[in-house]
Give the backbone structure.
Amino acid sequence: MFLSEADLLSKAHSLAGRHVASLGSRAHKGGVGELVEIALGLTPGSSPEPDVASLGIEVKTLPVQNGKVIESTWVCSATPSSILEETWSTSRVRKKLARVLFVPVEGGDVPVDARRVGTAFLWSPNLDDEAILRRDWEDLADLVAHGLGFAVSARRGTALQLRPKAKDNTVRRTSIDVAGESYEHAPQGFYLRRPFTQGIIAAVFG
Amino acid sequence: MFLSEADLLSKAHSLAGRHVASLGSRAHKGGVGELVEIALGLTPGSSPEPDVASLGIEVKTLPVQNGKVIESTWVCSATPSSILEETWSTSRVRKKLARVLFVPVEGGDVPVDARRVGTAFLWSPNLDDEAILRRDWEDLADLVAHGLGFAVSARRGTALQLRPKAKDNTVRRTSIDVAGESYEHAPQGFYLRRPFTQGIIAAVFG
DNA sequence: GGGGATCCACTGTTGGATCCAG
DNA sequence: CTGGATCCAACAGTGGATCCCC
């Protein structure tokens, strides 16, 4: 496997300019992300490869059209129980975003197979990014931890937002609130807003 | 008439909180602007009153709803012949915007008569504003001067934009291009974009 | 159910069209 | 035709819903 960031980035760069079709065929949501991981020698769905895990790198495809990021980016789930055990420093959001290999891929109207892979790049939040993410996370996590996640709209947060994530809107999970009462709620997770990732793209590619 | 800015502003402040209905009845586009001018002792449509002219003040109502500016602001016309005789320093845009009495007025869905007048304020562009306006004007004016105004979209410009202004889209004017040929084009004018006036409001009212 | 994301109806924005008085 | 602006269909943006694989 990979021994260094440079190796991973180099491998990712070798994908630049290729069409998704040349990586295999997965014409479904998430399919491109899986193909890219496989092309990088990773195994989608399993726990991170040892090398990638030790490097602390998260791989994310970033759908782009005409130079613009067209979708928000999934980060991780946000359940009351998980949040209760976290602080910003120990949070999964911070860990996952500490080092990200962003792989731009054509998106939007372009047929999946015809989408071209762009030039991947490694990213870490700078001080401003970190401050914004932290503020958002602490605000949102606090609400979720208090069992108020259900009442939080995706409008909240500057870089990070809370959104539902499930097969459909009938899916419920059960949690225990601070009073010890159990309650049901839709599964939710943290996403990076498009303007935030757009800013990252702009900073990298001018 | 008015002897000073302070007099004009004072008079304008006396309108704050009043409803448009109390100023008279002009239930048409532009009617509120005219009523406000009359209430200030000015005569809409005529050349500026001596006092106001000597003060170099332009009066503009600013339609606002929920704290947000909801329309762009007309500045002046933009014909090739007029532009050819101007430079930024001598431009009507710069002169008109050098000192503006902005009178916020409720707008949008509120019935015209029920619209309340807000607290007027005097504004002049700061150095940043001036630089932006100048950049926009020089860019747009250059195109108009070269007879290319017809091809300029309202998307151009950061604070200032070029837009059609006529009774309908059949109205044409005739101009002479640099080669001496006459050509027809829709009347156009300069407008202040909403985000720009919104910024002014935000700076004044926090 | 978690991990990879995209879809799309709705809503907010705005470019171009238009309105009235003098 | 100018000076006072507002209207509104079309577009862009995005919140909430959804999809597939493992």
Q: What stands out?
A: Chain A has a mean pLDDT of 91. Residues 26, 28-31, 34, 44-46, 72, 153-155, 161, 163-169, 186, 193-194 of chain A lie near DNA strand D (CB under 10 Å from a C1').
